[in-house]
TrEMBL record:
Organism, scientific name: Echinops telfairi (Lesser hedgehog tenrec)
Enzyme class of the recorded protein, top EC level: transferase
InterPro entries (alphabetical): Methyltransf_16 (IPR019410), SAM-dependent_MTases_sf (IPR029063)
Gene Ontology molecular functions: methyltransferase activity
Chain segments carrying region Disordered: 27-46
Matching PANTHER family: HEPATOCELLULAR CARCINOMA-ASSOCIATED ANTIGEN (PTHR14614), HISTIDINE PROTEIN METHYLTRANSFERASE 1 HOMOLOG (PTHR14614:SF39)
EC number: 2.1.1.85
Principal subcellular localization: cytoplasm
Gene3D superfamilies linked: Vaccinia Virus protein VP39
Subcellular localization: Cytoplasm; Nucleus
Taxonomy of the source species: Eukaryota, Metazoa, Chordata, Craniata, Vertebrata
Alphabetic keyword roster: Cytoplasm, Methyltransferase, Nucleus, S-adenosyl-L-methionine, Transferase
Pfam families: Methyltransf_23
GO process annotations (BP): methylation
Name under which the protein is recorded: protein-histidine N-methyltransferase
Length: 368
C-alpha cells in the first residue's frame, strides 16, 4: 500500500534517483517542482578540528587498512541485498548530540513523503525522500547529496547509513516474533535507529518509553520521526483527514509522549541523555541492527552499552558475520566485548543464507 503526501518532483532529480536504483517509484513527472522547502538540520561536524587523541571513539585501531568505508548504494528494499564495500579515505568527524522535539506542525513532517509498507509496517520511502532533498541546500549536513554523489550508503564520520533499512533489521524483527520478546512496560533504546522500525515495534508492543538515536540529525528528522508518526495510533490516518479533523500536534505529542529522539555520536549521546534527567533510568532493552561494521567504533559502542543498560537489562544486536572492506563483524565484536569482561555474549539466531547474519544477546556478567 502506498500513500502520497503533496508531492512534486523536478525531472532532473528523477534522473538522479534512477541512478540510485531504488525501489519502484510512483512519480508524477508531469509536475515540475518540489512543492515546499524542508527545514535544514542542526548536525554539527568538526571535521579535522576534533582532537581524536582525546576521544575514546577513536582509540581502537582500524583492522587492516579500513580507515573508513563506503557501502555501495542499493535499493532500500535492498535491505535484502548483501553488503558490498569499497575502501574510501575520509577525515572522520564527530556529530554533536542533540534531542529532537516533535514539530508543532505535524503535517510538515509528512510533507513530500510517500508511505509504503514493509513487513506490515508503514514507513516513508527513503528514495523519494532523498529525491525531494537532493535539490535542497543544507549548509551543515548534506548527507543526501554526498551519499548520492559518492554512490555510498556510508561515509565514515559523516553519514553512517541511516537512510536505508538494512537487512539485519528484519532479522531482529523476525526474532522478536519468534521469541515473543516482551516490550510491555520496558524502557527501550533503538540505537543507530535509521528507520526506527525496531523501536516502533517496541512502542507498539507497549514499551513504557522508547528512545531513538541516529548519528545523523537529518535521518531523525526526515525518516525516524515521520516513521514513528505514521505508526502511531492516529498517525497516518489522522494526517489524511481534512484540516478540521486532522490530528493535532498536541494529540500526537500525547500519544508519542513516551518517545524521545536523539542524533549524534554515541559518546556524546550518552552524555546528553545521562545529563538530561536528574535520575536517569537506564534501558531495559537496547536494540541495535548493523552497528558493528566499523571496529573504530567498538569502544564507543561498548561504553554506550555499559553506561546506559540497566544491570538486569539486555542488548539485542543483529549483524552480518563480517563486513568486507571495513573489517568489523560479529566475531571481532564478540572478541572485543569478551576482552573487556563486562558483558556475556550469546548467539540467539544464526541466519545462513549467503553471507551469515547473527542475532546476539549481551547481558552484564554481574547483574545487579
Ligand atoms: C548501517 S546503519 C543501520 C541502520 C539501522 N539500524 C538498520 O538496521 O536499518 C548504522 C547506524 O548506526 C549509527 N551509527 C553508526 N556509527 C555510529 C556512531 N559512531 N555514533 C552514533 N551512531 C552511529 C548510524 O546512525 C546508523 O544509522
Amino acid at each position: 500500500m502506498t500513500f502520497h503526501f503533496n508531492f512534486t518532483i523536478e525531472e532532473h532529480l528523477e534522473d538522479e534517483l534512477a541512478s540510485l536504483g531504488d525501489e519502484d517509484l510512483t512519480l508524477d513527472s508531469s509536475k515540475n517542482s518540489v512543492s515546499k522547502s524542508q527545514k535544514g538540520n542542526g548536525r554539527k561536524c568538526s571535521t579535522g578540528q576534533f582532537d581524536l587523541s582525546q576521544n575514546h571513539f577513536y582509540d581502537h585501531k582500524p583492522v587492516g587498512n579500513a580507515t573508513s568505508s563506503l557501502f555501495r548504494d542499493s535499493p532500500l528494499n535492498a535491505a535484502h541485498s548483501s553488503t558490498n564495500l569499497q575502501q574510501h579515505r575520509k577525515q572522520p568527524c564527530v556529530s554533536v548530540a542533540k534531542e529532537h522535539a516533535l514539530p508543532q506542525d505535524l503535517k510538515k513532517l509528512l510533507e513530500n513523503k510517500v508511505v509504503e509498507t514493509l513487513s506490515g509496517l508503514p514507513h516513508v520511502s527513503v528514495s523519494i525522500m532523498k529525491m525531494a532533498l537532493l535539490g535542497k541546500n543544507f549548509p551543515e549536513e548534506n548527507i543526501v547529496s554526498q551519499s548520492v554523489s559518492s554512490h555510498s550508503d556510508l561515509i565514515t564520520g559523516v553519514y553512517e547509513g541511516g537512510l536505508k533499512i538494512w537487512e539485519c533489521t528484519f532479522d531482529l524483527l523476525a526474532y522478536f516474533t519468534k521469541a515473543n520478546v516482551n516490550f510491555a512496560g520496558k524502557k527501550v533504546l533503538d540505537l543507530g535507529c535509521g528507520s526506527g522500525l525496531l523501536g516502533i515495534i517496541a512502542f507498539k508492543g507497549g514499551a513504557k518509553e522508547v528512545h531513538f538515536q541516529d548519528y545523523n540529525s537529518l535521518v531523525i528528522d526526515e525518516v525516524t520521526l515521520p516513521n514513528v508518526v505514521v505508526n502511531s495510533p492516529s498517525g497516518e490516518d489522522g494526517m489524511k483527514e481534512p484540516a478540521p479533523k486532522r490530528v493535532t500536534g498536541l494529540k500526537l505529542a500525547q500519544e508519542l509522549g513516551q518517545c524521545r529522539f536523539f542524533s549524534g555520536e554515541w559518546s556524546e549521546f550518552c552524555d546528553l541523555v545521562l545529563n538530561s534527567e536528574k535520575h536517569f533510568i537506564k534501558y531495559d532493552l537496547i536494540l541495535t541492527s548493523e552497528t558493528i561494521y566499523n571496529p573504530d567504533y567498538y569502544s564507543s559502542l561498548h561504553q554506550t552499552f555499559h553506561r546506559l543498560l540497566d544491570t538486569n537489562g539486555r542488548v539485542l544486536l543483529a549483524s552480518k558475520a563480517h563486513y568486507f572492506g571495513v573489517g568489523g563483524g560479529v566475531h571481532l565484536f564478540r572478541k572485543f566485548v569478551e576482552e573487556r569482561n563486562v558483558f556475556e555474549t550469546r548467539a540467539l539466531e544464526i541466519i545462513d543464507d549467503g553471507l551469515q547474519r547473527i542475532v546476539v544477546e549481551l547481558t552484564f556478567k554481574h547483574p545487579g
